[in-house]
Automatic annotation (TrEMBL):
<feature type="repeat" description="ANK">
    <location>
        <begin position="330"/>
        <end position="362"/>
    </location>
</feature>
<keyword id="KW-0732">Signal</keyword>
<feature type="signal peptide">
    <location>
        <begin position="1"/>
        <end position="24"/>
    </location>
</feature>
<protein>
    <submittedName>
        <fullName>SH3 domain-containing protein</fullName>
    </submittedName>
</protein>
<dbReference type="InterPro" id="IPR036770">
    <property type="entry name" value="Ankyrin_rpt-contain_sf"/>
</dbReference>
<keyword id="KW-0040">ANK repeat</keyword>
<dbReference type="InterPro" id="IPR002110">
    <property type="entry name" value="Ankyrin_rpt"/>
</dbReference>
Amino acid sequence: MKPFIKSLFLSFSCIALVITNLSAQSATWEETDGQFFINGDLAAVKRILSKEKYSGDQLSLALNFAASSGNVALTQYLDSLGWIKACQKLRDCKPIQWASMNQARPQMVEWLLSKGFKSDAESLEAAAVLNLPQDSTVANSFAVVKLHCENGVNPLLSTSYQHEGNKVMVASVIERLSERLNSASQDQGYALLHARARAAEVITTSFIKAGLCKKGAKQSTWFDDYLNLITASRPGDTDLSKSNVYLAAKVGKEWRGIVENYLMSEALLSKDAAQRLSMLNAFKTAKWLERCRQNRYCSLIDVAAESGADKATFDFLANEGYPLDSPNASGVTPLAYATANAQFATVKNLCESGADFRKTTKMEIYDRSIISIVRRAYSYTWCSAIIDAPLSKSEKDPIQHRCEYEGGSIASPQTGVSIPECIPGKSCLGVAFPPKGNETQIKNLRALADLFDYYKSGQCRTPNKVLSCNANIKPYAVLIADKVQLRSEANANSNKIETLSFGTTFEVIDSNRSCETMATREGRWIKVKVNFIPLRSREEYIDMQGWIFDAYVDYLPTLEP
């Protein structure tokens, strides 16, 4: 079987996806002993292999994991046990592909080549495709691409494989990379990292299109020249002549804007406000801003939001026609980026400029409310702080268990699951606020708690505007206040059915009542069916229905995690 996975497994947090077709026992190994191979822990691997003998599929997967770690000393040890020789006889043992993937490992690839493994189209494509990379990842990707080109991979050649007796043709590497660049892509809630990945893929694909993927590729300065452009954009170099010359000579018009978008995004990260505005003016003069605004991949406003840019930056971009409250091609709004990254000052700027926090936004594949993003980011940060905190094992174990299965500590701050009963800024699972943690974690926790209160109290609005009754009603809702009464009728004097706690979720049955004011809060009575009450057994609330005032709820488009 020779097809390469078109949607590469680009994040090692997603490695479990690679082995979903393995047995439950193998999945357990991946979560336990397999982690030592992924992390390149030579001492731990030696302990494991002193007690067990690996062969077949388990050896393949373990060696693939070891190659992805980049620890050459580990693979040298495995070679001394005969693993390399065994691997070369196993169909699914492809360490050179794993060493090329996402966190590309040039030294590991060179070592594997020295042991007789061959560069191939799959490994070249693995090195070329990136997902949310750091700077070092981009440089390593370029280095591994050059290695595979140097070793004779033909990126223009189509390949084939047999499937159930039929010959299946596979497009060439250059065709697949070009198709990827010409297709819409999701930024997974990380605007800058996604822009960095797309730009790097443009540079690699352009390198291949220029016919440079061949013997002698290692001597090319193509990639080094690009990395130098990035370095120049960070300190605020307003002379764009070198960038314009490089892009005009090496990148086709159809992809040039993708690279310009990233270089501008890097400039937005400058901490010097005057320098940042000088760069924006230079981009305006060079028509970069105008070109970017007209394309779906433009993420300048999103990078500004997630990085906490000042009001002057947003005012400048707004004057250039950049909308401050529109979703991008991934469906994410600037307010969502600022919220997920705990950028309180930026959130206030956006709100005062007219951003609507009641709008539903995308975050990865899910529709989200802004308040649910706050709660998820808060739970993720809280769990991370607790797991790192100096607590006893008896204190930490139950909390870590809860975090891993509800708080999303092993997920992302954008999409992790919130702990239902934990109110931002209050004690949680018996731990006082703020928990012990590093300075950044505590700073972000405080900012996220303040953001929750800011949204909850209806302060996200333009100055002097009265926040009206919420018209953005959705099929579900979650209680964002504590000890709220569920009533038998749509008025505050009707019988109390239940006192509900923070985090209770509902299915909305009837939302047709008129708006009214109750205790200075404007809202409407909605009839709901209780879906979940934190820390209560389902038998206590099954089929429970009643009326609640919606000034105390956050509407949700879905109850997906």
